[in-house]
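Team,

Forwarding the record for the chain on the shared tracking sheet. I've put the sequence and predicted structure together so nobody has to dig through attachments.
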Amino acid sequence: MVQPAPNQDIPAHPCTPTLSEIRHHVQDKFGIRPCHWQLKVAEALLQGDKDVVCIAGTGMGKTLGFWIPILFRPGGIQIVVTPLNTLGRQSAASLARAGIKGIAINADTATTANFTAIDTFEYRAIIVSPEQLMKPSGEFEKRLKNPLFTSRIISIIIDEAHCLTDWGEFRPEYKELRRLRYVLPMSIPVMIASATLTKDSLTNALQLLHMHPSRLVTIRRTTDRPNIKIGVKKIKYALNSYADLAFLIPPGWKDGDPLPPKFLIFFDDIQDAINAAQYLRRRLPPGMQDKIKWFNANMTTTYKDAEVTHFVLGETLGLATTESFGMGMDVPDIKLVIQWRATCKLPTLWQRFGRAARDKKLTGTSILFAEKEFFDDERAAKASRKMQRQSVRKRKGIKNSTAEPPAKRAKLNGTSATTVQPGASSMPNGMNVEGEVSDSEPEPDQESTHMPVINQGLDELEGALDEAARARKSAGRPEKRRKRELDLVMDYLINAENRVGLKCRRRVFDVCFENNAAGGKLPLPLCSRLTVPTEADHLVCDTERAVGCDRCRITPASVCCDIHHPDEFTNLMSSVPKPPPAPPRSRIPKYDPSPHDHTLRNALEEWREQTTSAVYGWHHLNDIGPCIVMCNATLERIVDCAHHHKISTIQDLKRETTWLDADQYGGEVLSLI
């Protein structure tokens, strides 16, 4: 069905202040001297005749541009759509410090009392989740159709706009934002803001929100963060050991020793984050183990707010977190950010890396720890081993074909001596040629992971980005299948040193986010294809100084990446003795649970709740849950093994479950079994 055209009301433009007037008023109200590009954002929103795109790096100050228009529209309201509830609360708190009333509306705060206050225009800023804004027949839909309410709206801002396409699959309300233009008068501009909009994501976002080039203002800054060092490391140890993170807490570290750098470790699995935090805690003295925490969406709002405060104050050394401590979280002095495993896409990775050193006077480090099978040298070695095995089989096949008795025996068994499948291995599943347990799945006949030619470089990366965008537009592979594979651009990042024309991790991000098209971009070391624009706006921003404005001046990175400055990353490596290969676990056949199995499961659930409360306190049980002691998968594995009488000692428990706390709590669990 053809949709009607968006509302075509003729916009009415109040008088727009000059840039100097905007700057003066902002300095008086917020105590901050806004940069030229921030003034241009505010000017575009105040003029109200065009939609706005704002692309700028993490920590550059995009949010200030959201609030400046409030100062010049008495009674006006700014509506900001944000993906994370924590961001909404953070924004409301920062506005309150400037004397501006704001409210964050999410599932917890969408109360009758709060909407009554909104109706009486008590709040000048409304920060809302897409689910609440686009809820069918919801409170916001009613107000967006009310001319009295919409007459007060200055603009609607979609913050972290890359989520429109990146998160649309599992948060469909993001795609429902397309209906905004069919509800709002055209006099209300829509702005999208992000630090990680690729060319493809930007095109999709503009189409989704019906933002037409003829009425569009684009303010674009580089997304580069020159005060962040970028590195990639190969995971050496077993994935579930987390031993590659041991360098964070040196052996024998004790209270009074120099503190580790304030750090964040990002995971794409909650249980991974919990397990890694517990591993690092064990490396601390008993009285210090609560200095490392985990942080995820399953925790209560009260707990998360408290933990953010502890982290900001330095009472917590580091967090093992998921996306919950991500976009927009403003902690200025994080020195080290780690992404554990190459399980995300490059824009998400850059968002996470951008949590480091938001204070520009500091230098931060960001590292991707990637699985070894994604590195070109490991791929080449694997391919070589495969060819050797095929060569051996071929020789054996030729030899056997000249020996009549073996061939006859093969025919008697209904097989042929030459029907061995290429790539098949006589080794047990999960074992490599050295006899060690491998973290990767058994080798398939056809590689499922993208394996580019090693000499691919800058031109190939740019072409690959365009090709990937075209493939997505033509339906392509289902989303579930794509998620199982390494993101194409992440492949280039991991193997940048082998790609002719790249040879730089930072350049991969520059190409992905088109930083050469951004105003104010200066060339980085060894990145000669990035161009200097004819007018660098940091000079326009502060004409009284020959070097221009220090805040928006983009300087070359003094330390670029581990390819150019490997010595800067030598202290970020772990040296932990590799444990002997774990004995194989039992294979558990399917079975019908007995009453005893249900009794054991209930007993284990009760035990882990009581233990969590006794060891960590009831508030941890309430906020984090009993998985802090024993995760659900371990509990179910114990029940399965107990059914088949596989666990009678602590060693059995450790072998069958790989439970990290088996030594500490194994005796109690055995008594329940």
